Amino acid sequence: MSAHSAAARAAEADLAGAYFEQLRSGFELAAEAVGGPGRLDLEMAGLRLRLRYAGEPLRAALLAPFEHLAGVWEGEPELSISLFDTASSGVEPPAPLWDPIAAPPGTNPVARLRSERACVLAAAGSRALTAAAPAEGAAVFHLPDATAIPAGERAAPIREALQLLMAARGRPMTHAGAVGRDGRGVLLVGRGGSGKSTLALSCALAGLEVVADDYVLLEPGSLTAHAMQSTAKLSEDSAQRLGVPAAAIDPAGFQQTLEGPKKALVDIRTLAPGTLRPQLHIVALLAPTPPGLTSRFSAHTAEKEEVSGGDGVRSISAGEGLRAVAPSTIVQSGFGGGVSLAALADLVRRVPSYALELSPDPGANAAAVDRLVAELG
Amino acid sequence: MSEPRFRIGPEIVHETVDGEVIAIDLGNGSYYSLAGSAPAVWELLGGGATEAEIGAALAGQFLAEASEIGAAVAALLAQLEENGLIVREEGSQSASPPAPVAAGEARTPFEAPRLERYTDMKDYFLLDPIHEVDTAGWPRPAV
């Protein structure tokens, strides 16, 4: 049978939609079992988002990074995500429709079942289960035990659910940070390890405005980058260089990451109070290059000195900007909740792209960002 | 026997910005930059084209010997096919064969096609593969 006809049959049966309904019923049972659901209402990316959870352990383990977006609003939510775990409620998720997948240490393979209406994602490594009906603005999330949450899930709580729901509302998750001043800023782009988090936190420590270090919700039409969580991931080396106090580092400490070096979660609210912003208007893309590494970006125009005053910022081509932001964004959203390459291409056509050779001095890097945003007026 | 036609592969997403083509292979995470005269070739591949049609179209656009252009096109098509960016279709017809350049249209100096490949996204595919579930059986690796 061809992949196409198999997919057509799966869609016809809408197994994904049925599984979503079953998981949603599981949440209702779980909420009843713990004496009623808890609720955290947010304003995220300009939308009313209601998080409902069956048991305080879920809020403690997963939802703290969203508290900075807490909002008070009237009426029904535009989006809702319901969370439960078996340890708190005793309620098991529906029987899986798939055989177990082997998840060698350090990997997190995902089983995906989807139809026109719904998408189910079962992560074999973290054992997180997400089912969403994006057009209806609803998702359900399940873990076996919220008190034994895997490091990866703590670093990116309910990311798949958010990604699926927000993409359906024209705010796709984009692999980029965002920092700036007075409501305007740059999108920090580049693959993992390029220095986005270190630069974003350098900016926060220098008093600039920060939306995120690694992932934003992007509204391409209005060039707006919206915040999700308040936490950033930082390597030991970067934490030392930035002088991050131990109090700002998550008690779980530095954990092995899928992509390489050990990293710890840092809450920007604790590290640099008052610097988090729910959104910034994007005026440029900026691709940091770690100190000591040869830049992969070629010199583009003579604008460099005019724009930067010789502080390591230089203009790069739109193609280089697209290459810095698009591949990791597209690849990481492979399950269907991502920004399209066309939208990112449109972005680099509308705003200029720059590279920043990072200095060992975090303050100098933040100052370079500050000047760039100011000069782009 | 008719000449094979080449088309952009089904798992390739691509955009052109400032004369550079960025193409991403959703099947394995590799991504590519096409520059020089390669974007002109890529544009023709969008509708499906034979090597001869591409060579003829480029000869109408660029100032160079037909043999030089032909050799460059052949080499680029081989690279694109080897990397899975294009697929070969035997005996199929183009919906609209590349239009010849109108007489009098200015030709520009020929720049050799350039293709650069980047594989730094492969880790994501190896660490977090996605397996499709469907009624035909399971698991069927999607990546």
Number of helices of chain B: 4
Largest beta-sheet details of chain A:
9 strands, mixed
Described by the principal axes of the CA atoms, the overall outline of chain A is: globular
> Helical region count of chain A?
13
* Helicity level of chain B: 25-40%
* Percent of residues in β-strands of chain A: 25-35%
Portion of residues in beta strands of chain B equals: 25-35%
Radius of gyration of chain B: 17 Å
**What is the strand tally of chain B?**
11
Termini distance of chain A? 57 Å
Question: Would you mind describing this structure in some detail?
Answer:
The complex is a heterodimer of chains A (377) and B (143). Chain A is α+β, with helices and mostly antiparallel strands. Chain A is built from 13 helices and 19 strands. Residues 299-308 of chain A have low confidence and may be disordered. In chain B, a hairpin with a 2-residue loop joins strand 10 (130-134) and strand 11. In chain B, strands 2-3-4-9 form a 4-stranded antiparallel β-sheet. A 3-stranded antiparallel β-sheet of chain B has the order 5-1-7. A two-stranded parallel sheet of chain B has the order 6-8. With 143 residues, chain B is an alpha+beta fold. Chains A and B meet through helix 1, strand 4, helix 11 and helix 12 of A and strand 2, strand 3, strand 4, helix 4 and strand 10 of B.
Task: Write a compact overview of the structure shown.
With 377 residues, chain A is α+β, with helices and mostly antiparallel strands. Chain A contains 13 helices and 19 strands. Chain A has helices at residues 3-13, 15-33, 56-63, 86-89, 151-155, 159-168, 196-205, 236-242, 268-271, 303-308, 318-332, 341-350, 362-375, and strands spanning 38-44, 47-53, 79-85, 110-114, 119-123, 129-133, 138-143, 173-175, 177-181, 184-188, 209-212, 215-219, 224-226, 231-235, 255-257, 260-267, 279-289, 313-316, 353-357.
